[in-house]
Backbone:
């Protein structure tokens, strides 16, 4: 038997979560078009024959503006250690910049083998991708460079084939029925948070957190009460919307997604609560599931 840990790293919004979902063939990590959607590292378990690969989807490395941002970066840095392989995921439609240089420097500090995953190649011509490859080759000794489209699932099988080469003779860390290291409460709150990202504008999603107040199964349905935590009353008004239209939309779409996750009927109530400056207070970062920095 073989197993291996592979960390997806990179700047925010390059498609790491979409790539994880594409490999697993199911929606595990939430996604949106906004950067820093991912706040916690999440492990996805993939099994092929006698090989078990544990993929770690890490938050995008960025310049933090508060304690929550520092926690997010710390999550990414921690998961660049004690792994068999680093997979740097880049968005080929975005120019190489200081953020990329910073990530590469962090990679060099680990001394671990790394591959380069060029995502969103479906949006560019082949000749446009070649200079990007040359740029990264000059910056880091990548062992493999694999172009993919995570969204369209192009070249995913080749990527998995390469990553399996880094699995070692070892026991399996998860049983064959386990998909992730996260519990159901976490997966539910993430689906609600995803809807906030997708249905609100600009900075609104970044000042929110979601916690489960109550969850109970009765007969053939789950009854769930969730709280959306915001840092200002003005944000609360936007989340609720005129005559409650926005929170209703968030609730409907979240419930549909959670029903798909749980494969049963769901009754969902969502409330919005203001906790001022929660992103900079250790007490609330811990209470809402984020460790102290």
Residues:
């Amino acid at each position: 038997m073989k197993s291996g840990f592979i960390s997806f790293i990179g700047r925010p919004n390059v498609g790491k979560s979409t790539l994880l979902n594409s490999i697993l063939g199911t929606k595990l990590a939430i996604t949106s078009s906004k950067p820093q959607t991912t706040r916690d590292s999440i492990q996805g378990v993939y099994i092929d024959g006698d090989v078990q690969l544990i993929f770690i989807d890490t938050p995008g490395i960025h310049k933090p503006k508060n304690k929550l941002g520092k926690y997010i970066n710390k999550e990414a840095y921690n998961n660049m250690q004690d792994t068999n392989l680093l997979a740097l995921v880049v968005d080929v439609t975005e120019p190489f910049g200081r953020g990329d240089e910073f990530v590469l420097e962090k990679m060099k500090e680990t001394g671990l083998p790394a591959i380069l995953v060029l995502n969103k190649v479906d949006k560019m011509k082949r000749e446009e991708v070649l200079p990007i490859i040359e740029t990264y080759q000059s910056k880091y000794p990548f062992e493999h460079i694999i172009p993919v489209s995570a969204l369209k699932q192009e070249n995913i099988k080749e990527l998995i084939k390469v990553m399996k080469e880094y699995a070692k003779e070892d026991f399996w860390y998860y049983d064959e029925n386990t998909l992730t290291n996260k519990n159901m409460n976490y997966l539910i709150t993430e689906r609600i948070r995803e809807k906030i990202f997708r249905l609100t504008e600009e900075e609104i999603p970044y000042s929110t957190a979601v916690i489960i107040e109550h969850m109970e199964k009765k007969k053939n349905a789950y009854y769930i009460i969730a709280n959306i935590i915001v840092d200002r009353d003005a944000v609360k008004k936007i989340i609720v919307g005129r005559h409650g239209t926005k929170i209703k939309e968030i609730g409907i779409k979240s419930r549909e997604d959670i029903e798909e996750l749980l494969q049963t009927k769901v009754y969902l109530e969502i409330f919005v609560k203001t906790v001022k400056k929660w992103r900079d207070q250790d007490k609330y970062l811990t209470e809402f599931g984020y460790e102290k920095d």
